[in-house]
What we know:
It is built from two helices and nine strands. It is mostly beta strands.
Amino acid sequence: xxxxxxxxxxxxLNYTVTDAEGAVVDDGRQPLVYLHxxxxxxxxxxxxxxxxxxxxxxxxxxxxxxxxFGDYDExxxxxxxxxxxxxxxxxxxxxxxxxxxGEELFHITDIANGKVVVDGNHPLAGVALIFxxxxxxxxxxxxxxxxxGHAHGEDDGHHDRAHxxxxxx
Length: 169
């Protein structure tokens, strides 16, 4: 008998994520496992669409940028002197910067003429995402999972997280 997704359910999803042009963003090789019910394991619009669905159900859900990783913010792009970075700095590298706003993650997007361009936007900022989801399993969460606010894998330790679209939330 299929179980219905409700608060404090551990949900396992088989999924793929594409952008609006159909390019694969996440091939979903590993199922997505999250604790349902407002624990921030997945995007709120996805969780809302999954509420009340059952094992075996399939959904296709499009998230606009503001419902996923936000709109692209030009103010998060900066040009810095290359001497502020390690000699082995390469395009694609990520680093954290601590400021008054807290910890920020930046990616190097270009290096030229002694300058480094850094971008604090999530790589998927400004991108609409289409989630193709099949509900593989629904079970009641354990007391431990509810207390910790996330699903635990079969052999996971206390704080190993098996939640969200791996790098998508």
